[in-house]
Structures are given as structure tokens and as C-alpha cells.
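Complex record, two chains
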Amino acid sequence: AQSVTQPDIHITVSEGASLELRCNYSYGATPYLFWYVQSPGQGLQLLLKYFSGDTLVQGIKGFEAEFKRSQSSFNLRKPSVHWSDAAEYFCAVGDYGGSQGNLIFGKGTKLSVKP
Amino acid sequence: GAGVSQSPSNKVTEKGKDVELRCDPISGHTALYWYRQSLGQGLEFLIYFQGNSAPDKSGLPSDRFSAERTGGSVSTLTIQRTQQEDSAVYLCASSLKRGIEQYFGPGTRLTVT
């Protein structure tokens, strides 16, 4: 069955430090992959997506992610974290087999930023 | 332009009552999705509408849950005879078509007392 695993429930980094959030997926076909961010009390905002082509994708707010098929991974990175990046981050894969259209989400990684 | 809107933002109801949650998708988006977000279960898919096709109801947890989409636009999620385990944030999303990125609304926080 299709699934997404985010191994880290909670990560704390210092402001200005680099960040990498891990995501592994299980999907039989070519995956359509997404990262979303959710601030407290808000909906989900799309950070970036991967459908095909260049395996390094750029997103909003200075985030990037790299698709590695051999590792079934789609890790999110940012070179220098800002206090405003504190939020919960969700990795998702599009479940587009047959007539389905929904996203399958990981459990999320909560990011805290130390001043 | 306007994003996905949902109403109400918060709903408190008594166990056993019916509730209706509303979603206004982005204009022109043919696909509409409902998800539920709870502490124990994370983000779960509930139902998916694509144009005028029959909806994909495979994620609905019980027959107390139903949804409709009128005129290919606004959608209403109805929960009958609410139970405490229905307490969650209900998120609506829309996309221009199936298979591409989805845009989410702010959600409706449902509390069943």
C-alpha cells in the first residue's frame, strides 16, 4: 500500500542553521510528491512539488527538495532557517492510481527554531 | 485571487447532533477534496469530487458521513449523529484538475461534547 514516512516527529534547530526534513515514500508508480507547511491554526500551504524532470526542485520561502528514486526519498532542505519557519511540515504523495486523486500524507515533522 | 474558504471556522456541537461544514473552492477548480486532521490519525482523506463524475467516497469512515457538491462548485460535508471521535479539523482542498497540486482552506475545527 502507498505510504509516506516522516521519521522525525519533532526537530529543533537554531536560527541561521541549516535544515533537512526527511521523507520516505512507498508508491508503485512514478510518484507525484509534495511538501506542505502548516502554521498553528492554519490550513496547509504548498511549499514545493515534484512531478518529473530535474530531481532538485525549488519552492517558496527558500526551501528546496531532492527526489532520490533509489532511496525512495524526498527530503526538504533550507540552508538558513528563520524564526518564522517554525511550523509543522508534511510530506505527501499523490495517490493517482485508477480514478483516485487524493494525497497520502506523512504524520508531519514539527520544527522549532531556537533564537 | 481568492483561495479556498471554509465555514464555520469553529463548530461546537453536542453528541448526537448533525453538523454541516461548507467549502468554497477556488473558482475554476474542477477537483475538490475533504480531509480530516486529528492528533491520533494525522491527515486522512475523506472524499474526492472531480467535475460531474461520481465522487470517490473510499475514505469516508462511516455511513454517518456524506458530502455533496452542488453545481460543480460549493461542497458540504455532513456528519450525522456526531460522536466524540468525530472531533477534528476538517480541511477542504481544490485543484485545477486531478493529479496536480491541491490548495487547502483554513479548515473547520469541530468539537463534539
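Note: The interface with chain B takes residues 32, 34, 36, 41-46, 49, 51, 90, 92, 94-96, 99-108 of chain A (CB under 8 Å).
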